[in-house]
Amino acid sequence: MNENIRIALIPAYEPDVKLIVLLYSLRDSNFRSIVIDDGSGEKYAEIFRWASEFSTILTHPRNCGKGKAIKTALTYIREKFEEPYTVVTMDADGQHQISDAIRICDAAEKKPDTLILGSRVLKKKVPIRSRIGNSITRGVFTVSTGLHIHDTQTGLRAFDSRQVPAMLSIPGERYEYEMNVLLEFAHEKRSIEEIEIPAVYFDNNSGSHFDTVKDSYRIYKEIAKFSASSFLSFLTDYSLYSIFTVFTGEFGGIGLMASNVTARIVSSIVNFTLNRKFVFHIENNLWQSALKYFTLAAGILIGDTFVLNRIVANTTLNPYVAKLITEAFFFIISWFEQHLFVFRKEGKSRTRKRTA
């Protein structure tokens, strides 16, 4: 069996001398280093000339984004290196310590089916932009997947060579790629493990090229698609319910129930189609997905109708306000169940473990 080698993958855009220090330390720790010059330009040619003394340099003629840089390096690694090997992604600004890279590589080699994250401990001294951004991303990720990741924005990640094909297939070319990786692993029930590392920042993180508006949009786009699908289905459901109620109101509770059931059947078909085709991109297992989805929809419909009738019968709220209240509650349940049960691809069970 070939010896398992360790490869540090480092996307670099307009780096400074800290990249050279990092590469020197990696070489001393027996890492192979692959650096991607992501369109830094002639001004930074000298930095990359120095870097070439310690690593392989791959070059993009223009800035393509962090996700694209990672994929360029992974394609090169897959072509040039024989398995087994371990890949660790690191930032070029010196925030990641060699000792932490070694620790997460150790973990990845012991658990080759697991994505290992170097999870930063974010304290008050951490730049507010990083602290707030991570908190928001962590919250949205938890709500959308049911999986709690302490540091969703960490760039220090290690994985076994057998994970490389999957990493190359995940969409995204800029900062959203790293979030898409986590979403894909969560969606496929693949294991993610966090190992605690210290947070290191230089000059209040001024070296970061993260565009708060553009890159945040890219990160949240995949999550927003799920919300948009659910909201469109809600509008379909609520509009049909309101129309049907006008004609069935004189029949009391039976009419209310008939309106709610009919509207929900139509909106469920709309929601299933949108989620399957445009949110989760599931092309196979139509009947299996449909069975799971409509089983869930039937359960939610029963609960929704019961709660709706109880609210209307026991409060002074009109049926339209009552419908909004019940929909808000069951929206949350549906959100979790579709992610965790209906549209999850078959995969191995996952573990979530924090180690010091």
Automatic annotation (TrEMBL):
Keywords: Membrane, Transferase, Transmembrane, Transmembrane helix
Bilayer-spanning residue ranges: none
A biological-process GO annotation: polysaccharide biosynthetic process
Cellular component terms (Gene Ontology): membrane
Every Glycosyltransferase 2-like domain range: 10-127
Major place of residence: membrane
GO MF assignments: transferase activity
Source organism superkingdom: Bacteria
Annotated compartments: Membrane
Topology in membrane: Multi-pass membrane protein
Keyword Lipid biosynthesis carried by entry: no
UniProt domain GtrA/DPMS transmembrane: residue ranges: 225-343
Alphabetized Gene3D superfamilies for the sequence: Spore Coat Polysaccharide Biosynthesis Protein SpsA, Chain A
Keyword Transmembrane: yes
Pfam families: Glycos_transf_2, GtrA_DPMS_TM
PANTHER family with a match to the protein in the record: DOLICHOL-PHOSPHATE MANNOSYLTRANSFERASE, GLYCOSYL TRANSFERASE
Protein name according to UniProt: Bifunctional glycosyltransferase family 2/GtrA family protein
Taxonomic source organism: Blautia liquoris
Lineage: Bacteria, Bacillati, Bacillota, Clostridia, Lachnospirales
